[in-house]
Structure formats: C-alpha cells, structure tokens
Specification:
This protein is an alpha+beta fold. The protein contains 12 helices and 9 strands. The longest helix has 18 residues. It starts with 5 loop residues before the first helix and ends with a helix.
C-alpha cells in the first residue's frame, strides 16, 4: 500500500523481503478504499489514506475522535500516502528492534532476549508488556478504533472473517508475532458501530508538537445525560505494548458525575498494573495526568 513503515524497515535491514506485492489496485474497489457514514455506523476501507479520512466532513462531525487521532499522526506528506491498514500494522519504534546491531531483540530474533529492559527504555511500555518485550505500540489511530469498539474485516485464502479490533494485536507472549492475521490474509476495512460519541477527544503528549510519537496519549469518548456520564470509552497510547483499552477505568466513570476526583480515581485504576523500568517510570504519572485532562476536557465539550 503506502509502504511508509515497510520502506523504513527495509532501509534498516530489519525487513529483508524477497518480494513486495503492490495492492494499490484494490483501491479501485470502494470496499477497500471507501469512507462511508450511515445509520449503521462508519465503514472505512483499509486502503483509504489517512489524510482523506481525517479531513472527511462526516468523520469530523460524527467521529471526531478518529479524525483527531489521524491529524496528530505523522506529517502531512506521510498522511497523504499512508493507508489505514498499514497504519494499524506499523511496528514499534523501539531502537533495539530497529538497530540490527543489537542481537537481543525477541521481535527480530525470537529467544534472544530484550535489550531494552536493561537499556535506555524511556519510551517503552509500562502496561501490557513482559520480560520478553517492553516495546510500546507507536500508533494513534488504533487507540481511537479500540475505544469505539471497531471491528476489522479480513480476507484471505480461506475467505472472509471479522474480528473485534481488540483481537487484532497480540500480547507479548511471542513478540515476533504482533497480530492475529493469518498467512496471506489482508485487512479489507474497518467498521465502527453506530453510537453518539461526538463528545470525544484524542489528547497526545509528545516531545515536540508535530511529527513525533506519543509518550502518552488518551482517546476518550463520553455520552452524557445532563451531568451524568452514561457511557465512557477510554483507550491509552504511548504507554502500552499494544493498543490499550482501559475497561476498569471506564467502569469508574460510567453512571456518575465526572469531576476531578472521579477522573483521578479512573486514572489510578487505569495504571494500577503498570510495571516500570529505570528510565520510563515517569510515564505512569504522565499517563495519569494525560487521562485526567482528557476526561475533564471531553466532559466540558459542547456538542
């Protein structure tokens, strides 16, 4: 497709494919490249370009969380080329994975260990990682999709199947296998079910304001009845091994008035299972503050 991740990894000799298949002709089919908002929800083709989805008027109006997550990703040039399918499959920015001079990397060399654990791990995961790998997932769009209960449409040699977005990315039990995609299987598109999540926000904290990956991010969507939150959705980025849904934190918010005390309770629960290393312990506090700010600012939005 856009190849924006694959080309990087080929230049670094992390990926050395014997063949590359160009699938851009699939974009002639709306199922692969379309952007459709209907009464049943939102359907996005996997070959839709990030920039086109981010600027789509219907997406911005009905699914602002998705638009915001895409606008804050990469650079305008990359967003013009990168596809949604490629974006959710991008691999970690862990320096020990991307530098082949380091032999200890369970993603590249299964069973070799994880050099990041005793190395410089400032940008690494504090949630969902293990002693086998502490790399963090780098994307933004995936946090919006997992928060909105999106589903993934797949096609392969054995026909079509559909999975929850939350089932796409694997945990760190085998770091060399990052997704549940089967051999010769492609992502055809994504479906976001209907739901009034216009009151939503993607908040991204990074070292510089543009063209940088998240150190911590929060995707928050709320449905309110007066002052009471009737439905909350929370996903965290920059701090976890894979796209991270904070279900326990959502339970704290649901059914009550969202004030700072409740927001901080939710943030504390969201990071209760955090495991830190020498250089990334600050991410726990930063992640909590990011989530508190996102919750309170989202709650105050006028829609």
């Amino acid at each position: 497709a856009g190849g924006t991740t694959l080309i990087d990894l080929m230049k670094l000799n992390v990926e050395v494919p014997s063949k590359i298949i160009d699938i851009n002709n699939f974009a002639n089919d709306q199922a692969w490249s379309g952007i459709e908002v209907s009464g049943n929800g939102l359907r996005l083709g996997s070959l839709a370009r990030m920039a086109d989805v981010a600027e789509n008027a219907d997406v911005k109006s009905h699914y602002p969380l998705i638009s915001q997550s895409l606008v804050q990703a990469a650079s305008p040039q990359l967003r013009n080329m990168a596809t949604l399918g490629g974006n959710v499959l991008q691999r970690t920015r862990c320096a020990y994975f991307r530098d082949v001079s380091y032999t200890q990397c369970n993603k590249r060399n299964p069973g070799s260990g994880c050099a990041a654990i005793d190395g410089h791990n400032r940008l690494h995961a504090v949630l969902g990682a293990s002693q086998d790998c502490i790399a963090s997932y780098p994307g933004d769009f995936a946090q919006a999709m997992i928060a909105l209960d999106a589903r993934v449409m797949l096609v392969g040699n054995n026909g079509r199947r559909e999975i929850a977005f939350s089932e796409l990315h694997r945990g760190p039990d085998d770091p060399s296998r990052e997704t549940t995609l089967r051999s010769a299987e492609l992502i055809e598109g994504f479906v976001v079910p209907e739901g009034d999540f216009r009151r939503s926000m993607y908040l991204k904290i990074r070292d510089r304001r543009s063209y940088a990956f998240a150190i911590a991010s929060a995707a928050v969507a709320l449905v309110k009845d007066g002052d009471t939150v009737t439905k909350a959705r929370i996903a965290l980025g920059g701090v976890a091994y894979r796209p991270w849904r904070a279900l326990d934190a959502e339970a704290v918010i649901n059914g009550g008035v969202l004030n700072e005390e409740r927001a901080r309770e939710a943030a504390n629960i969201a990071f209760s299972s955090a495991v830190t290393h020498e250089h990334n312990a600050f991410k726990v506090k930063l992640g909590k503050e990011t989530l508190v700010r996102a919750l309170l600012e989202t709650s105050r939005l006028e829609i």
